Amino acid sequence: MNLDDLEGIGPARLEALRAVGILSLRDLLFTLPVRYEDHQTVFSCSEKTPGNILVSGIFSDSLKKVYFNGVSRVQGSISDDSGKLSVCWYNEPWITQQIHVNEPVRLYGRLSVKNGRRTLQNPKIVTDAGWMPVYKSLRKFPAKSFRNAIEAALKNLEDCCPETLPAGFRIENRLCELNFALREAHFPSSMQNLEIARRRLSFEKIMLYLLYISKIRQNRRPAPALKISSIQADLFWSLFSFSPTNDQKKVLLDISEDLQNDHAMARLVQGDVGCGKTAVAFGAAFLTCFAGYQACMMAPTEILATQHYENAKEVFKPYSISCRLLTGSTKAKERKKILEELADGTCQILFGTHALISKDVCYSKLGLVITDEQHRFGVNQRSALQDKGTTEEQISPHVLVMSATPIPRSLALILYGDLDISVIRELPRGRIPVKTHLVPETKREDMYGFLKKEVQKGRQAYIVCPMVEDSDQADELRSAKSVYKSLQASSLKDLRIGLTWGNQKSVEKEQILRDFKDGKYDILVSTTVIEVGINNPNATIMIIENAERFGLSQLHQLRGRVGRGTEESWCFLLSDHTEKLQILCKTNDGFEISRKDLAIRGPGDLLGTRQSGEADSTFAFTGDSLLIEEVSAAVKKLHQDPSQKETLNILENYADDYFACSEREIALN
pLDDT by residue (tens digit) across 391-414? Predict the structure, then answer.
């Protein structure tokens, strides 16, 4: 049976499916829901906790419809025995035809609470019950029609999705059958069955990845074996006025040993904010240059690339190592000169952004590729940089990857399955931990008073917001532009305030960030654009609006923008939701915070890729980090237990077939 045999799928919808890689009934059935709506648990109209809820009641009065700047707004109040709840719909004027006075209705939508006012926003009328799947939206394919297509495809489940795991292996690892897993993943009969289903699907995907990666590890590209002596690392550390931590010395030693091998190093260095990863990366570049090869370092923003370049020039000055900077804004004349120096070997270390992978960038003898903040680059961008140094003899440069997002080691094994992992846990001596406090709305002015005193001492502050502009659909959130405007009318109006956000013109954004670092602003209001790569030791205060809307790891990254100097620093989390945020107040350990964040949110799409023939949501992780360790143990047993040889061969062939068409898409470096 083909996709176009399903009722309701004509040429337009078939094309919409193909556009996202859904080419068969199997692909369709492996396109799992991104979330579920509870159409069973009814909340009272007096509910005060924000979030998605289902309410049941009546409208005593007719809905009111108004238009403003071409946008319709329909308002009313639904009531039950507990009281009334305001309801509003934006751009859905037809809702007035569907809801009638004094007729019972069930509504599912998001409850927002702002200044004590509760509103159910853009709810939909619910006529079904149970847990309803919600899929990633597709153009030209309404959500209800897509759900109907899934239901129709499930009738042919046994034919198009035969069991993929040997029975003995399933039983040994407590995994349900595939047909049960897919039925329950789409239309769960209970939350317990959904967890059983998701465990099976998660286990299988992780297992296939580990089996495939284990083969890749055994076949790394050939690379130049650099001649490095043990004394060179000591020479490098002597360039600094501070002593390296034991972790920094150990990691550079690991890198030094890798660089001396004749197969390409593939090493991830991860560590907490401010642990000194950049110094280690500079050390790797230093060793590479001493061995007669070039190094390059790619950063996600011009600000960060420039920062690395300026620091490297100072560090390497005693040894006259030639450093250059190449970004999108490098002028043509300067760019031409850099490319010439790169091609003849005069330029020893090149820093830059994605401009490093432009077609006309050619290296003379590239020995080391470093990517900083690697999660900000696509897999193909990182691979393209490595390919730049690959010779006709297929000799490739060594690869060093840096990540400032601490993640539990068990998760790192999956995210970076083919990489050797080095962790820097120690922080440099003298670093003062940032003090973190929860601040309710009632204490905002007290916080502003404290901020003003810090500015009077010559310090600076960040204020981070979850949105750029106000939105009717999320009117409980404070936006960067509205906060910027309100500060100019507040007790802080005499201070110099800057504003930046992600989609701001690059030239403007870079200038504002540079001006803030140069002390031309006292306060910088922004979105999370300042999350990585901003180093201003003079900033001592971080204020985060609607802190409950961010993940713990992201909050920790934002907090890491302060406390980078010698002065005491503070992070203020503006929120009335305290349970999750208390974790940040209790610890500054990024690895512990990340572990908690993983438990709360789950890691999302672990493989960081979309496989050929499958849509983005083919993999729903259970959120249980212990599963990763279970899968790792199962794969280890497959390799070590002679009685499992036949099962291993079956599963390795399955993994080969699964990933064969998309090797470059997998998160390898």
Answer: 666 788 998 988 776 666 556 655
The DSSP secondary-structure symbol of 434 reads P
Q: Average the pLDDT over each of 62-66, 83-87, 628-632 and give the range with the smallest value.
A: 628-632
Rounded to an integer, what distance in angstroms lies between the CA atom of residue 158 and that of residue 29?
11
Pairing verdict, β 435-439 and 83-90: unpaired
Bridge partners, residue 55, by sequence = 43, 107
Quote the tokens at residue 386: 């490595």
Distance CA 89, CA 72 (A): 8
With 0-12 / 13-18 / 19 or more C-beta atoms within 10 angstroms meaning exposed / middle / buried, residue 238 is exposed
Is beta strand 83-90 parallel, antiparallel or unpaired with respect to 71-80? antiparallel
With contact defined as beta carbons under 8 Å apart, do 13 and 144 qualify?
Answer: no
Separation between Cα atoms, residue 435 and residue 587, nearest integer Å: 9
Instruction: Please spell the DSSP secondary structure of 330-392, one letter per residue.
Output: --HHHHHHHHHHHHHT---EEEESGGGGSTT---SSEEEEEESSGGGS-HHHHHHHHHHT--T
pLDDT at 599 over 80: no
Domains assigned to the chain: 41-125 (2.40.50.140), 231-424 (3.40.50.300), 435-587 (3.40.50.300)
Average pLDDT, the chain: 86
Q: Which residue bears the tokens 């080419």?
A: 23
Predicted local distance difference test score (pLDDT) of residue 311:
92
What tokens appear for 49 in the block? 């906790």
Q: What one-character-per-residue DSSP string does 36-68 give?
A: EEESS-EEPTT--S-EEEEEEEEESS--EEEEE
Cβ atoms of 631 and 210 within 8 Å: the answer is yes
Tell me how far CA of residue 120 lies from CA of 46, 84, 102, 112, in angstroms: 11, 11, 18, 6
Query: DSSP state, 662?
Result: G
Token couple for 600: 């709360």
Q: Please report the beta strands in 177-293, taking only residues with DSSP state E, as ranges in sequence order.
A: 266-271
508-512 contacts at long range (C-beta below 8 A, 24 or more positions apart)? 510/302, 510/303, 510/329
Question: DSSP letter at 565?
Answer: S
Specify whether the CB–CB gap between 322 and 347 falls below 8 A. Answer: yes
Q: Are 555 and 406 in contact (CB under 8 A)?
A: no
DSSP type of residue 468 = S
Pull the structure tokens for residue 474: 């999320």
Beta bridge pairs of residue 463: 525, 543
Q: Residue holding tokens 């809801």?
A: 99
Q: How far apart are CA 157 and CA 88, in angstroms?
A: 41
Q: Are 497 and 523 in contact (CB under 8 A)?
A: yes
Could you tell me how far CA 326 lies from the centroid of its own chain?
Answer: 26
3-state secondary structure of 400: strand
Contacts of 246 (CB under 8 A, 6+ apart): 426
Residue type, 180: F
Q: Is the pTM of this model over 0.85?
A: no
Q: Residue 256 in contact with residue 432, Cβ under 8 Å?
A: no
Tell me: the pLDDT tens digits for 284-319?
999 999 999 999 999 888 888 888 999 999 999 999
For residue 204, give the nearest of 174, 227, 160, 238 by alpha carbon: 174
Distances (CA, A) of 336 to 75, 341, 360: 62, 9, 10
